[in-house]
Amino acid sequence: MSVLILHTSNASRKRHFARARLHGERLLLIVKNPTWETEFVDRVVAADTSSIEDTVAAALELAASETEKIDAVVAFVEHSVPAAAAVAAALGVPFVSEKTAHIARNKFEMRTEFARHGDVPGPGFGLAHTLDEARKLATDIGYPLVMKPLIGGGSMYVRRVDDETELDEHFELIRSGSWDGFDYDPLYRADREKYGAALLLEGYIQGDEISVESIVRDGVTHVVAIHDKPLPMEGPFFEEVFYCTPTRLAPELQARIKELTANAHDALNIHTGATHTEFRITADGEPVILETAARLGGGPIYRSVLTSTGVDMVDAVLDVSLGRTPNLDPPAPVRPTGFFMFFAEKAGVITSISGVEEVRASEGVVEVELYKNIGDAVQVPPHIWQAHGHVVFTVDDAADLDARFAELRDMLRIDVAPEQ
Ligand SMILES: Nc1ncnc2c1ncn2[C@@H]1O[C@H](COP(=O)(O)OP(=O)(O)O)[C@@H](O)[C@H]1O
Ligand SMILES: [Mg+2]
């Protein structure tokens, strides 16, 4: 059997490819600039993946030149989901529809569908093309609020503003960055035309944040893991640093989160594949949705879920795509697991990276990935959508997760010199 992977370069997905390699199918890959990915697949085609049409054309040409038919299409990264949906439709293999793929990538359309559903609680929201529109909308929604790109990712250009003075100060920079920062995105041109370079404004949801990893099969949602994000994330920017699982939330709340995750899938018509859904839990215990992505959780989430629950979500998504029954109930007991992203201390060129081997050799550390090397120029949040590396670790007692995170984080250091 053959599986076609649609990919956009992303250093945090090595483990996904390595696992897919072991799954047993012939692997075909379409990516713009193939690098390390080639070692994990049987055949690579370079195509301009910032264009869905070019990607579909490349996929059809590839399919015609293969002796075996392509049985499944998968995408591990957000940017490849719309193209994967278009390619799957062209090849007649299971995936979410092109419409769903688009809605799950456009935060305004996603909020609109959640609101239409009726039981996917969300904040007030709306579009603003100009500062005047933003001021009016802000009086309806109420401060504090969050400004964000329609087609963003990785918290880039997501900013909290607390009052009109802050809105006036930051609106234009965030609005222009929200489009100019994503011009490589396959949805960029069409959505910019459709929405006239508008910005999304949402009511700020005060509360603890969680992420929910699911597999959907024949329209049925199986929540595999819930991660807490114990560090305060109150803005103005929202870089994601530390996650851990199992969740500390009460069982009734977990049940409600599972129900709302299934509702979110219904609202977006996600009936197959993996999803990554984020919520905040308000002080009165109400989950409010942030977003759902029609793909596996990013980077370290894969290994964290595998370590904590024994469920291999790359296997599961391949199984579901190929029409097989995934193993979602392994006998392994749940292990307390955490992971964190790390960044350079400031923007510049990396001059040294220390502590990596020390962390790798530390008790309970299951994965250390470094996405950058000495000599690479790096940015820091909020200007980037990806950290410079990650660590996944496990402990015997869940009560030790936060302290262990702090210890491991303090061992790592990326020094930079100002860029010339
Ligand atoms: N309405 C909101 N209220 C509170 N925090 C928010 C809100 N929207 C976004 N955030 C914060 O910003 C982060 C990124 O926003 P999100 O909508 O998930 O976009 P993306 O992850 O695609 O960049 C969230 O994880 C959350 O911490
Ligand atoms: Mg998000």
Automatic annotation (TrEMBL):
Gene3D superfamilies: 3.40.50.20, ATP-grasp fold, B domain
Transmembrane segments: none
Keywords from the named record: ATP-binding, Ligase, Nucleotide-binding
InterPro entries: ATP-dep_AA_Ligase, ATP-grasp, LAL_C2
Top-level taxon of origin: Bacteria
Domain ATP-grasp: 112-322
PANTHER family: ATP-GRASP ENZYME FSQD, FUMIPYRROLE BIOSYNTHESIS PROTEIN C
Protein name, as recorded: ATP-grasp domain-containing protein
